Amino acid sequence: MLHVVGLGCARGGAAVLSNVSFDLVAGQALVLRGPNGIGKTTLLRTLAGLQPPITGDVVMPEETAAYASHADGIKTALTVTENLAFWAEVYGMPLDLAVLDRFDLAGLRNRQGGTLSAGQKRRLGLARLAVIGRKILFLDEPTVSLDTGSVAMFARWLQGDHLAQGGIAVIATHIDLGLDAPVLDLTPFQSAPGTGGGTDEAFL
Ligand SMILES: Nc1ncnc2c1ncn2[C@@H]1O[C@H](COP(=O)(O)OP(=O)(O)OP(=O)(O)O)[C@@H](O)[C@H]1O
């Protein structure tokens, strides 16, 4: 369902990673590792189609992927429930309010997004992934700001719901989520210094 072959990607006009290849089928996840600056965010954005690759291909069914960045994408003036309803509507999905319990948001359902703590905002941002119905998730440090219990809750949703229902996830994370997933260390794929790259102005 996700076929990545010979992918090269750039940031700031310079090649960052070269020749990354992997395949994932329904129910599989892949954890991206590597030191700060190696190119995890750049790779995720390229996989998600937010910037063009300099080489290679990303093959997946159309309209099946979503990218979650460090930002939570929360509408500050809307309540927690309204935020989820908004995202469900944008993606043409019905809103199942069970998601509130799944992400420990039931007690906050009528709170405005802007009044949430950093960790609560992150839980809402992740709950958004559960309502949009996208099968392929590209997740950039999804657990930033989360306490230990919330990390475990998110990992349970990812493994027990998303992947169990045939989803796919590619996750850049520095912490162990306890997922049953292989790890891809990006260090060997680092481009040689000074290698030029394609355009990624939208990302600067
Ligand atoms: N605006 C920019 N112009 C030029 N180079 C940039 C720009 N932003 C980032 N870079 C460089 O691109 C490279 C890849 O950055 P990227 O954010 O993809 O790495 P990362 O592995 O996600 O890092 P981290 O673990 O710190 O989040 C880094 O060397 C970084 O310094």
Automatic annotation (TrEMBL):
Keywords: ATP-binding, Cytochrome c-type biogenesis, Membrane, Nucleotide-binding, Translocase, Transport. It holds the Pfam family ABC_tran. One of its GO terms (molecular function) is ATP binding. Residues 2-202 form the ABC transporter domain. The keyword Membrane applies. GO terms for biological process: cytochrome complex assembly. SUPFAM superfamilies: P-loop containing nucleoside triphosphate hydrolases. This is ABC heme exporter, ATPase subunt CcmA. It comes from Yoonia vestfoldensis SKA53.
